[in-house]
Design a protein that fits this description.
439 residues; 12 helices; two-stranded antiparallel sheet; mainly alpha
């Protein structure tokens, strides 16, 4: 055997030793990674942990990487391999011969020849175990099996984690959406030529949207998300109408640049598009039929308030009726508007504006009125006579002040809030609705 063949044999066993070391380290690292993965999966069974699967995979990958890095650092060199080969009965002949390959001398040549002869004769005695013990393999496979079982096992907490993740994603999108609108409002409010009243209107829109932004950052349930979305939709509609009115006033002679007016109009149109898109998504999910709340009898978009527009008088005034407690406006408060919203049946609007015709009272049907112009039978409530008055149809009834009627409705609404009759999140909307009448 020459020196070249001698070195090739040592290199062969070096490769086997390094592969065996790598396999042992991989099995050990996977066992550690599987143990940590089991811990993660166990945590996911008691608390919502959406990224448990990703974390488990990352731990296993890191375990494998650490095994490869450690195996590379701890790899055997030629001299260490020769020592391992000597442990199979060669009495350090191989390592001595390897160390003296570059040296010359009679004794060195005799020793090298003896080592090569012994290696050629007894090479079969060298047996490198490639795989770790069966106990290590069984332990690793068992841990990986348990980890996989826990990962695939369904649980309420995993469903809750999925729900929370979806809510947080939607809340994050809403927050970013509001942030864009707030930036636009901030730029508009810096226009120097706006009046104090106009700047105050923009500031109020900004504060309302900032409140919704903070609310979306704190949502943790589907109910909270629905409530926050309903409030935001309501605020979007108010902001849209306010921006339309502001843009109209600027077009009617206010000393403001055309860029500002166009920006206000663009923002108003953007809010309208967002509301229409949301409404279209809701309608597509309802198969063309209005949704119902079986307990409260709510219809429309399940906002807790059904709204419809109607023609109130001969002057073409448009009014919206907000029905409280799922009613279709019979017990709601009618707001008569000279420039009110057009009814689209979506149940998402509230009229704003003013009327040139005074309406300082309402009539309560089925009560005897102290007027000679009204006739009716107080006993027979099946029919109610009416006539055309200057301001529209007038029914038989007692004339009561506008404030008294609104106060009665407001009291009933607050009693309903205290009794928990309204959907979660609608309380503040109802309070704000009646506070506008008080103002």
């Amino acid at each position: 055997m020459n020196q070249r063949a001698f070195l090739k044999i040592i290199q062969f066993y070096r490769l086997k030793l390094n592969m065996a070391g790598l396999l042992k380290k991989v099995v050990f690292a996977l066992s550690i990674g599987a143990g940590v993965g089991i811990l993660f999966q166990a945590i996911a069974l008691v608390i919502p942990f959406y990224y448990v699967g990703i974390c488990t995979i990352i731990i296993l990958i890191l375990s494998l990487l650490s095994a490869f890095v450690l195996a590379f650092i701890k790899r055997n060199n030629m001299e260490q391999t020769a020592l391992v080969m000597d442990s199979f009965g060669f009495a350090e002949r191989i390592v001595t011969a390897y160390g003296n390959l570059e040296k010359e001398g009679k004794l060195i040549e005799l020793q090298r020849a003896d080592a090569m002869k012994q290696l050629q004769i007894y090479r079969d005695k060298i047996r490198i175990v490639m795989w770790p013990s069966w106990k290590c393999l069984a332990s690793c496979i068992g841990l990986l099996t348990v980890m996989t079982f826990l990962a695939l096992m369904p649980s309420a907490m995993k469903e809750r984690a999925q729900e929370l993740h979806k809510i947080r994603e939607e809340a994050r999108n809403k927050t970013e959406e509001i942030e864009e609108i707030l930036e636009t409002l901030e730029n508009l409010s810096q226009e120097q030529d706006l009046t104090l009243e106009q700047q105050a209107a923009l500031q109020e829109m900004t504060e309302n949207l900032q409140a919704s932004q903070d609310e979306f950052q704190q949502v943790s349930t589907v109910e909270m998300m629905k409530a926050a979305s309903q409030k935001l939709e309501y605020k979007y509609e108010n902001a849209e109408e306010g921006l339309k009115a502001l843009a109209q006033s600027l077009q009617n002679g206010a000393n403001v640049s055309s860029i500002t007016t166009e920006s206000i109009q663009a923002l108003s149109e953007k809010l309208q598009e967002m509301r229409e898109m949301k409404l279209a998504q809701e309608n597509s999910g309802q198969s063309g039929s209005p949704s119902k709340d079986g307990e409260n009898g709510q219809s429309g978009n399940q906002n807790g308030q059904n709204k419809q527009s109607g023609n109130n008088d001969e002057n073409g005034q448009s009014g919206n009726q907000n029905g409280q407690n799922g009613q279709s406006g019979e017990d709601g408060a009618n707001s008569s508007n000279g420039q009110g919203d057009k009814g689209d049946g979506s149940g998402t609007g509230r009229g704003t504006g003013s009327s040139n015709t005074p309406h300082d009272y309402v009539s309560i049907p089925n009560d005897i009125a102290d007027s000679e112009n009204l006739t009716g039978n107080a006993v027979d409530h099946d029919a109610s006579d009416y006539f055309h008055a200057q301001n529209g149809l007038s029914w038989e009834g007692t004339h009561m002040s506008y404030e008294a009627v609104i106060g009665s409705y407001e009291q009933n609404a607050y009693e309903g809030i205290a009794a928990g009759k309204y959907p979660s999140g609608m309380e503040e909307i109802i309070k704000e609705y009646f506070s506008n009448f008080n103002e």
